[in-house]
């Protein structure tokens, strides 16, 4: 795992790897098959929205 695959939660300070993050559907009308939101498994805050669709 590299630093690029982990996120620091701004709410609770947890270091969350991309495999540990909870994936949820996006907000704001983005296509859920193309975009997913990664959430902190500890506090549930959104960490990052990632592109999961095909290029
Ligand atoms: Zn958190």
Walk me through this protein's architecture.
There is one protein chain. The strands form 2 sheets. This protein has a 3-stranded antiparallel beta sheet with strand order 3-4-5, with no helix packed on it. It has one domain (about 5-50). It has strands spanning about 5-10, 15, 20-25, 35-40, 45-50. About 0% of the residues lie in helices and about 40% in strands. The chain has about 55 residues and is mainly beta. The protein binds zinc ion. Zinc ion binds near residues 40 and 42.
Task: Spell out the key features of this protein.
about 55 residues; three-stranded antiparallel sheet; two-stranded antiparallel sheet; about 40% strand; binds zinc ion
Number of helices: 0
Mean pLDDT: 87
Q: Using DSSP, what is the number of strands?
A: 5
Which regions have little confidence, pLDDT < 50, spanning 5+ residues? none
Shape: globular
Largest sheet data: 3 strands, antiparallel
| Sheet with most strands: strand arrangement | 3-4-5
Question: What small molecules are bound in this structure?
Answer: zinc ion
Structural class assignment: mainly beta
Helix content: under 10%
| H and E string | EEEEE
Distance between the termini: 23 Å
Helix-strand blueprint:
Blueprint: E1 6-8, E2 15-17, E3 22-25, E4 35-39, E5 46-51
Antiparallel strand pairs: 1-2, 3-4, 4-5
Bound molecules: zinc ion.
């Amino acid at each position: 795992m590299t630093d690029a695959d982990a996120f620091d939660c701004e709410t609770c300070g947890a270091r969350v790897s991309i495999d540990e993050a909870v994936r949820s559907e996006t907000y704001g009308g983005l296509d859920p098959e193309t975009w997913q939101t990664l959430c902190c498994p500890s506090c549930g805050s959104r960490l990052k929205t990632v592109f999961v669709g095909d290029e």
